[in-house]
Amino acid sequence: MEAASHAHDHVELLATVAHELRNPLAAIQAAARILGNHEHDARGREEARAAIDRQVMRIARLSDDLLDAGYLSSGRPQLRMELIDLRELINAAAAACRPQLEAGHFATVLLLPPHPVMIEADPIRLGQVITNLLDNAAKFSEPYGMIVVGLDDNSGVVSLRVVDHGIGIPAEMLPRIFDPFVQVDSVRLRSNSGIGIGLHVVKRIVELHRGTVKAFSAGPDMGSTFTVRLPRHT
Ligand code: ADP
Predict the structure, then answer these.
(1) Which pTM was predicted?
(2) What spacing in Å lies between the alpha carbon of 193 and ligand 1's midpoint?
(3) How far apart are CA 230 and CA 211, in angstroms?
(4) How much of the chain is helix, strand and coil, in % rounded to 5?
(5) Which of 34, 156, 163, 228 is the most exposed place for a label (fewest CB within 10 A)?
(6) Class of domain 2-73
(7) In contact, 164 and 137? CB cutoff 8 Å
(8) How far is Cα 174 from Cα 172, in angstroms, rounded to an integer?
């Protein structure tokens, strides 16, 4: 019975992935036709090129998500721990997300302490946590919104918050939002929704760093706050 339900989950996952590939591939094909047709002017061709660029990024992200999910569910993944200033990691993550943030004309505010906030972490993996949260904040907010990244280091704990003023999360979904493949129904219908793996990856990585992550939202259209707590280096 359990094996049958796993098989069903796998088939569902494959169907989701196939579906997620279909839209970008169709868009790339349409753009390639425009580029191949010399009747289009320079502007039309530039738009087609930009569309291919965007869609390829989307497919690359999907494949990264799947690779991460596979890597993180394979026994105990190895972290390369270093002593790092979390402020630098936040700045680097914000720079990596700049294209999405600028595309949506978001005002991105980083509220960072004036002193170093040292933690022991794998900078690549923890960087991915911050970019995933920032990426979601942009993805699930209307353009021209404000996104705030806050960092506090009180007593032995470092706490990092990513706050948006976007579509929010219904209360009944909050306890399940970090489970694999879970998406809010209204989101699932969007064309750029992804496959619901990002937050699962976030939680796994944070827990590997002996930390916790929590989601809060006052409800639909009330924005969302994700808080990551990590032990401070002493
Ligand atoms: P994906 O972005 O691929 O859908 P995630 O695991 O990153 O997957 O997120 C799971 C779901 O959680 C999303 O589909 C969305 O419903 C909800 N969610 C995540 N972040 C936010 C956010 N900042 N605001 C509103 N909903 C969010």
Answers:
(1) 0.84
(2) 8
(3) 4
(4) 50, 20, 30
(5) 156
(6) mainly alpha
(7) yes
(8) 6
Q: Which two tokens stand for residue 193?
A: 């929704």
For residues 158 and 83, the answer to whether their CB atoms sit within 8 Å is no
Nearest Cα residue to atom 11 of ligand 1: 183
Using an 8 Å Cβ cutoff, are 101 and 134 in contact? Answer: yes
Residue 107 amino acid letter: A
Q: What is the distance in A from the centroid of ligand 1 to the CA of 162?
A: 13
Q: Tokens 């320079």 correspond to what residue?
A: 42
What CATH number should be reported for the domain whose range is 83-231?
Answer: 3.30.565.10
In eight-state DSSP terms, residue 190 is S
pLDDT at 3: 64
Residue owning tokens 């399940």: 176
Which three-class secondary structure state does DSSP give residue 226?
A: strand
Q: Does the Cβ of 196 fall within 6 Å of ligand 1?
A: yes
Task: Dump pLDDT digits (tens) for 162-220.
Answer: 999 999 999 999 999 999 888 888 776 665 667 888 999 999 999 999 999 999 999 99
Question: Where do the domains of the chain lie?
Answer: 2-73, 83-231
Please spell the DSSP secondary structure of 106-134, one letter per residue: -EEEEE--SS--EEEE-HHHHHHHHHHHH
Distance CA 117, CA 55 (A): 37
Q: With beta carbons less than 8 A apart as the criterion, state whether 153 and 117 touch.
A: yes
Higher-confidence residue of 27 and 6: namely 27
Which residue's CA is minimally distant from atom 4 of ligand 1? 196
Contact between residue 223 and residue 140 where contact means Cβ atoms under 8 Å apart: no
Give the mean pLDDT of 43-66: 89
